[in-house]
């Protein structure tokens, strides 16, 4: 999978901009605030219709303009496709090969991208909700049925919480309607848990090896699924809902469920959340992203593209070299950096270098 070119119109600090990419490694070099991350953001946006920085369209549209356009030709599944997104303040319009696409699920998949940005360190240090979001997003990219289960779960959960409000007003008891909702919730959660469990197990094995390689040490990194229930079966989930009913009724929200789970990260059996240094966190997250690339390849048969924003500046020389060793021409990669001075690696020497100097655009 690759993106051959990118055309930006009134996107962030770009008025009109066209760029062609190499199918191997592309390095975007430029001073601060020149628009390097904006390009990575545009590629990612083209991939999943969402930015990794904001959910507000207006922030991506060039100041004092009403629309932004991001367009690119991608090669996937042995075919060329043209992807196009038009952002207005209120909406996004997507096109594939010139045709309007109405459902996001019909758009996602033409360009699969894995992105690393400095904010991703929150995957280790941040709250469980960040890791859940990561799980849901990445699983959604490779498993349409997961999107189906998750959508169903969220709808049922909303319905349950609304019904709790009604029961609270009526001073009602755990009744047949709630039991039916809980049964459906239990069934769909069993499917989601199975998918999450399998994904984390596979990711963990890969992360362990990649971390050992990049860090060049004997630290063992493991990912562990923290499920909300010990024995995953319908009966036990229903018992838990009945046990939590009085509490749920008081707080008008459902306490137990997959919306409360976590993916714990351990380094040498200790919580990375509590003990990992900045460098260890960065290496863990990078290993997770590279592991994802392999996992996606196993699932869809093609490597996704890899977007690395400002990854080189924070790694020590040894880790930098090891990371560059892993990158290769099979995976189209984009690296942003302010400078490549002093990096003597063949990957950097052979890469396509693109100078980004767009601050002056008005
Ligand atoms: N909606 C917008 N309209 C116009 N300019 C914008 C908009 N959003 C951001 N910018 C400008 O884009 C520039 C930042 O671009 P970007 O984040 O890509 O920088 P960068 O090259 O990655 O910098 P650094 O090396 O500091 O991370 C800033 O000058 C900012 O003012």
TrEMBL record:
<dbReference type="GO" id="GO:0009432">
    <property type="term" value="P:SOS response"/>
</dbReference>
<feature type="binding site">
    <location>
        <begin position="30"/>
        <end position="37"/>
    </location>
    <ligand>
        <name>ATP</name>
    </ligand>
</feature>
<dbReference type="GO" id="GO:0006302">
    <property type="term" value="P:double-strand break repair"/>
</dbReference>
<dbReference type="GO" id="GO:0003697">
    <property type="term" value="F:single-stranded DNA binding"/>
</dbReference>
<dbReference type="GO" id="GO:0005737">
    <property type="term" value="C:cytoplasm"/>
</dbReference>
<dbReference type="InterPro" id="IPR027417">
    <property type="entry name" value="P-loop_NTPase"/>
</dbReference>
<dbReference type="GO" id="GO:0000731">
    <property type="term" value="P:DNA synthesis involved in DNA repair"/>
</dbReference>
<keyword id="KW-0963">Cytoplasm</keyword>
<dbReference type="Pfam" id="PF02463">
    <property type="entry name" value="SMC_N"/>
</dbReference>
<comment type="similarity">
    <text>Belongs to the RecF family.</text>
</comment>
<dbReference type="GO" id="GO:0005524">
    <property type="term" value="F:ATP binding"/>
</dbReference>
<keyword id="KW-0235">DNA replication</keyword>
<protein>
    <recommendedName>
        <fullName>DNA replication and repair protein RecF</fullName>
    </recommendedName>
</protein>
<keyword id="KW-0234">DNA repair</keyword>
<dbReference type="InterPro" id="IPR001238">
    <property type="entry name" value="DNA-binding_RecF"/>
</dbReference>
<keyword id="KW-0227">DNA damage</keyword>
<keyword id="KW-0547">Nucleotide-binding</keyword>
<dbReference type="InterPro" id="IPR018078">
    <property type="entry name" value="DNA-binding_RecF_CS"/>
</dbReference>
<keyword id="KW-0238">DNA-binding</keyword>
<keyword id="KW-0067">ATP-binding</keyword>
<dbReference type="GO" id="GO:0006260">
    <property type="term" value="P:DNA replication"/>
</dbReference>
<feature type="domain" description="RecF/RecN/SMC N-terminal">
    <location>
        <begin position="3"/>
        <end position="340"/>
    </location>
</feature>
<dbReference type="InterPro" id="IPR003395">
    <property type="entry name" value="RecF/RecN/SMC_N"/>
</dbReference>
<comment type="function">
    <text>The RecF protein is involved in DNA metabolism; it is required for DNA replication and normal SOS inducibility. RecF binds preferentially to single-stranded, linear DNA. It also seems to bind ATP.</text>
</comment>
<keyword id="KW-0742">SOS response</keyword>
<dbReference type="InterPro" id="IPR042174">
    <property type="entry name" value="RecF_2"/>
</dbReference>
């Amino acid at each position: 999978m690759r993106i051959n070119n990118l055309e930006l119109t009134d996107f962030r600090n770009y008025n009109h901009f066209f760029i062609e990419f190499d199918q191997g490694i592309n390095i975007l070099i430029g001073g601060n605030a020149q628009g390097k991350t904006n390009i990575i953001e545009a590629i990612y946006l083209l991939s999943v219709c969402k930015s990794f920085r904001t959910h507000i369209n207006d922030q991506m549209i060039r100041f004092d303009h009403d629309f932004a356009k991001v367009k690119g030709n991608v090669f996937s599944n042995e075919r060329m496709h043209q992807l196009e997104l038009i952002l207005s303040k209120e909406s996004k319009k997507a096109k594939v090969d010139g045709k309007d696409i109405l459902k996001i699920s019909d758009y996602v998949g033409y360009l699969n991208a894995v992105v690393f940005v400095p904010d991703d360190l929150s995957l280790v240090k941040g709250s469980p909700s960040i890791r859940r979001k990561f799980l849901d997003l990445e699983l959604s990219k490779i498993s349409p049925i997961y999107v189906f289960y998750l959508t169903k779960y969220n709808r049922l959960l909303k319905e349950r919480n609304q019904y709790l409000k009604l029961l609270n007003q009526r001073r009602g008891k755990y009744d047949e309607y709630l039991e039916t909702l809980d049964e459906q919730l239990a069934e769909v959660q069993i499917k989601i848990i199975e998918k999450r469990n399998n994904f984390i197990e596979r990711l963990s094995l890969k992360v362990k090896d990649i971390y050992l390689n990049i860090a060049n040490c004997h630290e063992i990194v493991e990912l562990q699924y923290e499920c909300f229930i010990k024995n995953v079966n319908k009966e036990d989930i229903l018992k838990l809902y009945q046990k939590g009913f009085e509490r749920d009724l008081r707080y008008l929200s459902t306490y137990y469920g997959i919306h409360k789970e976590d993916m714990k990260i351990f380094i040498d059996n200790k919580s990375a959340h509590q003990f990992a240094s900045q460098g260890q966190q960065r290496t863990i997250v990078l290993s997770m992203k590279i592991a994802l690339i392999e996992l996606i390849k196993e699932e869809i048969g093609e490597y996704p593209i890899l977007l690395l924003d400002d990854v080189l500046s924070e790694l020590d020389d040894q880790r930098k070299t090891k990371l560059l060793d892993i990158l290769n021409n099979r995976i189209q990669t984009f690296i942003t950096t302010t400078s490549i001075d002093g990096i003597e690696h063949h990957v950097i020497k052979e890469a396509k270098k693109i100078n980004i100097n767009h601050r002056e655009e008005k």
